[in-house]
C-alpha cells in the first residue's frame, strides 16, 4: 500500500472513530464537531487537552475553526458525557477523554496533565455534601515537578 493510500485509510478510520464517539454522546456530527472529535479520539488513545492545544492541533491539520468554537465544542462534549473537564487552577482547565475514575498528575514545569495510577490511590472517605447537594465526582490532581 502506498503512503498516500495508507494515510487515507488511517484518516477514514480516525474519522469513523470520531463519528462513533459523537453518536455515543447523541451529538449531531457537524463539520467542526467531527474535526475536533477526530483529533481527540481518532487514533483510539485518550487525551488530556486544553482548548488552546486542541485549537492549535486543529489549525495544524488545516481545520477552519475559531478558539471560541473549540471552547464551546469541548463544553458540549462534556455535557454529552463524552469527556470530563478538570480544573487545575482558577484559570486553567484540561479536558480528558478517559471517562473512568482516575487521578491525575499535573506537571508544573511544563503545564501538562497525565494519568496517575488509580490502583495506588487510597481514598477512604469524602466529606458528606451539604444538605440539598450531592457529590457528582471527585477529581484528584496531584501537583508534581521534576527534581
UniProtKB/TrEMBL annotation:
Species: Thioclava marina
PANTHER family linked: FERRIC UPTAKE REGULATION PROTEIN (PTHR33202:SF7), ZINC UPTAKE REGULATION PROTEIN (PTHR33202)
Family matches, as CDD domains: Fur_like
Subcellular location, record wording: Cytoplasm
Subunit organization: Homodimer.
Protein name, UniProt field: Ferric uptake regulation protein
Highest taxon, organism lineage: Bacteria
InterPro entries, alphabetized: FUR, WH-like_DNA-bd_sf, WH_DNA-bd_sf
Family: Belongs to the Fur family.
Keywords: Cytoplasm, DNA-binding, Iron, Metal-binding, Repressor, Transcription, Transcription regulation, Zinc
Amino acid at each position: 500500500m502506498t503512503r498516500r493510500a495508507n494515510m487515507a485509510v488511517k484518516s477514514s478510520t480516525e474519522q469513523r472513530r470520531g463519528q462513533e464517539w459523537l453518536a455515543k454522546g447523541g451529538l449531531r456530527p457537524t463539520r467542526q464537531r467531527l474535526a475536533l472529535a477526530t483529533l481527540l479520539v481518532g487514533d483510539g488513545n485518550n487525551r488530556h487537552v486544553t482548548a488552546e492545544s486542541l485549537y492549535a492541533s486543529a489549525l495544524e491539520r488545516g481545520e477552519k475553526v475559531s478558539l471560541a468554537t473549540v471552547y464551546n465544542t469541548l463544553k458540549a462534549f462534556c455535557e454529552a458525557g463524552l469527556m470530563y473537564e478538570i480544573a487545575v487552577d482558577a484559570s486553567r482547565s484540561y479536558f480528558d477523554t478517559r471517562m473512568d475514575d482516575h487521578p491525575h498528575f499535573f506537571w508544573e514545569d511544563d503545564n501538562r496533565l497525565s494519568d496517575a495510577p488509580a490502583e495506588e490511590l487510597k481514598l477512604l472517605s469524602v466529606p458528606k455534601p451539604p444538605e440539598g447537594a450531592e457529590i457528582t465526582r471527585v477529581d484528584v490532581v496531584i501537583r508534581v515537578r521534576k527534581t
